[in-house]
Design a protein that fits this description.
mainly alpha, 4-stranded antiparallel beta sheet, 16 helices, 4 strands, globular
Length: 296
């Protein structure tokens, strides 16, 4: 009876463990010698992990599908690209890391205002913050900077470019504007307020400040020839410009100095803001823009 278990064993059962090792050959006349088999096993263990196809490691095919370059260093691909391992495990890369750099596209590189806008996401300040901005410029006075912001010259035939296409009563003053030159007496007899602001005289009329060309030939520093909307409280234009600059700066549109001058950088920032808000791009301070900024 002690010999019965040996008689029930079959050659097939004895060879079963041998089939579980992929690196070993079936027994037979052409089976490799034990020494050769051991050497082959050692070589397989020392081969790079990518060639063994172990779980969790990238192969050239997976590298191509994830948009990364194939691993050519001989090291496991999973350690070279942590993002690929996260994607295989069903994980998402945080949005902050996948967001493109503002300088990544030619359009943002060509326009500083557009570049800043992309990074800042154009979040408007709260009404309380707007009031704080306005309070900071209550006694603001712009100073002429002809070296940094050149002045424009008087041109009687000048018209605001593109204004004929700006539809709506809010833009009528821009469509009809053309420079006029008069002396001090004429301005005083036609308008109740004429003030020297930022190196040039301006007259106020129905919510807008206009350059008073000819009022004083020695004080004609204007960096923008056109109406500036400030509302019916008749706030000085340089203070309103400073308010707008500060708010656009806070939102990331304006990168210049808060100087109260409606120069090229300020007008570029206004254009970018107006475009993002779906407004007519006047590159000027008009009623819809000032209302949109919460300063109307």
């Amino acid at each position: 009876m002690a010999q019965q278990p040996e008689e029930q064993q079959t050659p097939k059962e004895k060879r079963a463990p041998e089939k579980t090792h992929a690196a070993e050959a079936k027994p037979g006349a052409n089976a490799p010698k034990p020494e050769a088999t051991a050497a082959k096993q050692r070589g397989a263990r020392n081969a790079p992990a990518a060639s063994r196809g172990e779980k969790g490691e990238a192969t050239p095919k997976s590298a191509a599908s994830t948009g990364t370059e194939p691993n050519v260093s001989g090291q496991p691909a999973a350690s070279a690209t942590p993002g690929a391992k996260q994607r295989r495990q069903g994980m998402r890369t945080p949005a902050a890391n996948t967001k493109a750099s503002p300088s990544a596209t030619p359009a943002t590189a060509a326009s500083p205002a557009r570049q800043a806008n992309t990074a800042a996401a154009a979040k408007k300040p709260e009404p309380q913050q707007v009031q704080q901005i306005k309070a900071q410029h209550t006694n603001f006075h712009a100073q002429p900077k002809p070296q940094q912001v050149p002045a424009v010259t008087f041109n009687q035939s000048y018209r605001i470019q593109g204004s004929e296409q700006w539809q709506g009563p809010q833009y009528e003053v821009f469509r009809s504007y053309h420079p006029e030159r008069h002396d001090e007496g004429w301005y005083r007899s036609h308008y109740s307020r004429v003030e020297l602001i930022g190196g040039g005289y301006y007259y106020w009329n129905s919510g807008y400040w206009y350059p008073a060309w000819g009022y004083s030939p020695s004080a004609e520093y204007y960096v923008y020839d056109g109406p500036i909307y400030v509302g019916h409280r008749a706030e000085p234009p340089d203070q309103v410009i400073a308010d707008v600059q500060a708010e656009l700066q806070q939102m990331g549109y304006y990168k210049g100095e808060v100087d109260g001058l409606l120069g090229p950088l300020t007008r570029e920032a206004l254009t970018a803001y107006q475009a993002d808000q779906g407004l007519i791009t006047t590159a000027a301070i008009d009623q819809p823009t000032l209302d949109s900024l919460g300063m109307g």
